[in-house]
Amino acid sequence: MNTRGLGSQVKDSIPVTELSASGPFENHDLLRKGFSCVKNELLPSHPLELSEKNFQLNQDKMNFSMLRNIQGLFAPLKLQMEFKAVQQVQCLLFLPRSNLSLDILRGSDETTEFEDILNDPSKSEQMGEPHLLVEHKLG
After folding, report:
1. Model's pTM, two decimal places?
2. pLDDT per residue over 75-107, tens digit each?
3. HSE (side-chain half, CA atoms, 13 Å) at 37
4. CA atoms within a 13 Å half-sphere pointing along the CA-CB vector of 104
5. What secondary structure does DSSP assign to 5-68, as a single string?
6. DSSP assignment letter at 109
7. Rounded Cα gap, residues 27 and 111, in angstroms
8. I need a labelling partner for 87 at 20 to 30 A (CA). Which of 3, 95, 103, 133 fits?
């Protein structure tokens, strides 16, 4: 009689290659990589979509290069430092944030845009209890 036990007999009788994944799920391991997102694999639906997504960045680059050609290297560097300083300013969580100083630096404080009227509801700031909001943020 074989003394190895029933578990080792089953293991010896079933080839391991039959248990491996095959087909369309062979390359993607759900436990290690998670679910695949089809949206990330799609190309932009319109040729201008990528351009519109990066409009502000392209506009800033063009303005900085034009400013460098006209006034020298120091002017765009100074503006970039001011942009970074303004973007790092944080306000209290329970106060509405308008980021007016960044709009003034960009020159968009006198224009009315789509985001000014119909902003994304997920980015809206709502008035709440100040102590609860600060405790939630700090953990």
Report:
1. 0.54
2. 999 999 999 999 888 777 667 677 888 889 888
3. 5
4. 6
5. -HHHHHHHHS-GGGGS--STTSS--HHHH----HHHHSPPSSTTHHHHHTHHHHHHHHHHHHHH
6. T
7. 50
8. 133
As to burial, measured by CB atoms within 10 angstroms (0-12 exposed, 13-18 middle, 19+ buried), residue 1 is exposed
Q: Quote the CA–CA distance of 31 and 8 in Å, as a whole number.
A: 27
Residue whose entry in the numeric block shows the structure tokens 């007016």: 100
DSSP 93: T
Length of the chain: 139
Give the whole-angstrom CA distance, residue 114 versus residue 20.
Answer: 53
Residues 6+ apart with CB under 8 A from 67: 75, 76, 79
Which segments in the chain show pLDDT lower than 70?
1-30, 33, 37, 39-41, 44, 93-94, 96, 120-127
What percentage of the chain reaches a pLDDT higher than 90? Answer: 20
Cβ(53)–Cβ(45) under 8 Å? no
Structure tokens at 61: 């680059």
